[in-house]
Specification:
By secondary structure, this protein is of the alpha/beta class. It contains 13 helices and 17 strands. The protein has a four-stranded mixed sheet with strand order 1-2-4-3. Strand 15 (326-331) and strand 16 (334-339) form a beta hairpin. The mean pLDDT is 93.
């Protein structure tokens, strides 16, 4: 018997729809996953088997084939665990065959059947709204970020058993209320505040002008003169985040896996990578491109201390993002573009000594 469940895969910052197709046929017991899965998805076989066992759901003893369509797109991460488990149950007739209709489902399974958070849930919810899908089933830990997207019924669940009962109509999962953002939303008091700085009137005036106009700054002075403290307190004089900016920053941090527990980034980012950082870690990339430090600093501040110690290639790589406000990462598997509109603050000593 054949069944399909709709989920998504993250490429860059965008979520692309993926159909998890399952076929159960006679033959020797086997569980095969095809469709360009990465190692984390291949390992899902053991997680799915164990989770179904603890949810008192049957696992077929015959040949099980799971296809992640479209098959030419590389899939990464663990959001496919829950859709695969549900597709197997639907193929056996344990849940309604149309259980995945008009639903987007994503979640990582623990061996006991509990649901664990996934990266990029906000992008998943945005995709669901774009496709006209009314319901998004996700782990409870991802509910806060997914609820930022209006007109979507976010169904946060803690376990596979709970999702199965919801699809069977035994017990409906409550809908998470939509969260609205406003200019009044603010973060907790900062550890460093601009009011802490005594003296340095000229330097503080320069920082105020930079904050008002979005200018980049180079601080030069002897050790102990206050360059680092000026940079760390700089975000506290930047304008309050607009709701659209909050959504942009939250989406980037969600994909990168740096989202705070409350599911929303309320303050402007401040990133301070060490001077030994590579160009890839700053710009972004990798086998499966992910946001780098400049994208994590989007709408905020990137602080480069000991600026002359950074490799020349790293400094040169900042040229295009500073001019365009975005960075395009090209790899053999494809090209992705990350936003990177930040204020650069660099600090250096007058001489190597």
């Amino acid at each position: 018997m054949h069944a399909a469940i709709l989920t998504a895969s993250i490429v860059g910052l965008e979520a692309f729809p993926i159909k998890v197709e399952t076929d159960i046929s006679p033959g020797l017991g086997a569980f095969v996953i095809v469709g360009l899965p990465d190692a984390a998805i291949q390992e899902a076989r053991e997680r799915v088997w164990s989770a179904l066992k603890h949810a008192d759901a049957p696992f077929p003893r015959t040949h099980v084939t799971v296809n992640l369509a479209p098959a030419d797109l590389r899939k990464t991460g663990t959001p496919f665990d829950l859709p695969m488990a549900l597709a197997i149950l639907a193929a056996q007739g344990e849940i309604p065959a149309d259980g995945g209709k008009n639903r987007l489902i994503a979640g990582e399974l623990g061996l006991s059947g509990d649901l664990r958070p996934v990266h990029g849930a906000l992008s998943f919810a945005m995709l669901a709204k774009e496709l006209g899908i009314s319901e998004f089933i996700c782990p409870s830990s991802n509910a806060n970020e997914a609820a930022l997207v209006p007109n979507i019924n976010v169904k946060p669940s803690a376990s596979l058993k709970e999702v199965i009962d919801h699809l069977r109509g035994i017990h409906s999962i409550p809908t998470k209320a939509t969260r609205s953002l406003s200019l009044s939303d603010s973060a907790s008091p900062a550890k460093y505040d601009f009011s802490m700085i005594r003296g340095q009137h000229q330097a503080k005036r320069v920082m105020e002008i930079a904050a008002a106009g979005g200018h980049n700054v180079l601080l030069q002075g002897p050790p102990g003169s206050g360059k680092t403290l000026l940079a760390k307190t700089f975000p506290t004089i930047l304008p309050t985040l607009h709701p659209n900016e909050t959504l942009e920053i939250t989406r980037i941090h969600s994909v990168a896996g740096f989202l705070p527990a409350e599911g929303v980034v309320h303050e402007r980012p401040f990133r301070s990578p060490h001077h030994s950082a590579s160009a890839v870690s700053l710009i972004g990339g990798g086998t499966h491109p992910k946001p780098g430090e400049i994208s994590l600093a989007h709408r905020g501040t990137l602080f480069l201390d000991e600026f002359p110690e950074f490799p020349r290639c790293v400094i040169e790589a900042l040229r295009q993002p500073l001019e365009d406000g975005s960075v395009t990462v090209s790899r053999a598997q494809g090209t992705v573009t990350f936003p990177a509109r930040f204020i650069l603050i660099a600090a250096m000593n007058p001489c190597p000594c």
